[in-house]
Amino acid sequence: MSTLKINTLSNVAGSQSISTDRVAQGTAAAWVNFNGTGTVAIRAGGNVSSITDNGSGDYTINFTNAMPDTSYAKVLGGSNDVNGARVASVTTVAAGSVRILYSTLPGANVDPTTANAAVFR
Amino acid sequence: MTTKRILWNNPDGTGSVLIPAPGVPEHVWRKDIPMGVNPIETDTDHMPKDRLFRAAWKASADGCTECPVKAKEVAHALRRAKRAEEFAPHDEAIAKRLPGAEETAEAARQQIRDKYAQVQLQIDACQTTNELRAALKTCGVA
């Protein structure tokens, strides 16, 4: 493997550029898209070794390579083909995993047809 | 797409299922199985196809099974939620104390009470989760 050491990436015209620090910090440290209904299955992901189905709407995302600490940002999303309103929240944070919960606005746990999660650090 | 699934029971009585990410080597996702549990390997063909009684899932030597006692608790919770949903518009009419509407609303509420008292009996009479599914479907609860 080769390493390219540069500080800035620029377009050919030189009119737009970005620091490699910003590229590295702005890239998801882990992400996953999975189906939480029927037979739960991961559609795609990066730096995610598995997910744990803990119950209705309740999942743990396990990272292949753990975060350096628990101060990472979590971005969650989800949808369901049957009922629109869904709330996604984080319930437990560890360096190696994050547990998330999907619920309706009144507070009942629900399984999303599409669950999305990304973390940044 | 991996079809392997790892099941285990938790100390709080719930059951968990590990879904390995596609393409991730087994020795990598194995670290995600908690220490101290008794993991059982199965595959997607041997998992329940619907999650209605997800809270009743248990890991057993036969793979993933549904505990009928817990499933019955889920069924009663669904029954109560559906009854509350049907009560809601009538509760509103009573709360607003609209002249003449209160009696109509109370009559409707009694019909709902009677209907769900029957559903309760049906659920209590079920012996298996398939019977519970059928009972809930018949009643329009799930």
Helix content of chain B: 40-55%
Identify low-pLDDT runs of chain A.
none
Give the oligomeric state.
heterodimer
Instruction: Output the number of helix runs of chain B.
Output: 4
Strand order of the largest sheet of chain B: 2-1-3
Major sheet description of chain B: 3 strands, antiparallel
Helical amount of chain A: under 10%
Structure classification of chain B: alpha+beta
Largest interface: A-B, 24 and 22 residues
State Rg of chain A. 17 Å
- Compute the CA-based radius of gyration of chain B: 21 Å
Widest sheet: strand ordering of chain A: 4-3-10-7
The outline of chain A comes out as elongated
Which H/E pattern describes the elements of chain A? EEHEEEEEEEE
N-to-C series of helices and strands of chain B = EEHEEEHHH
How far apart the termini of chain A lie comes to 24 Å
Beta-strand proportion of chain A: over 45%
Molecular structure report:
- The complex is a heterodimer of chains A (121) and B (142).
- Chain A is built from one helix and ten strands; from the N terminus they run E-E-H-E-E-E-E-E-E-E-E.
- Chain A has one helix spanning 20-26, and strands at 8-10, 17-19, 30-35, 41-46, 48-55, 58-63, 73-79, 87-93, 97-103, 114-120.
- In chain A, strand 3 and strand 4 (41-46) form a beta hairpin.
- The longest helix of chain A has 7 residues, at 20-26.
- Chain A starts with 7 loop residues before the first strand and ends with a strand.
- The model of chain A has no long low-confidence stretch (mean pLDDT 92).
- With 142 residues, chain B is α+β, with helices and mostly antiparallel strands.
- Chain B is built from four helices and five strands; from the N terminus they run ββαβββααα.
- Chain B has helices spanning 26-29, 68-96, 101-125, 129-138; strands at residues 4-9, 15-20, 40-43, 57-60, 63-66.
- In chain B, helix 2 (68-96) runs antiparallel to helix 3 (101-125) and helix 2 (68-96) packs parallel to helix 4 (129-138).
- The model of chain B has no long low-confidence stretch (mean pLDDT 91).
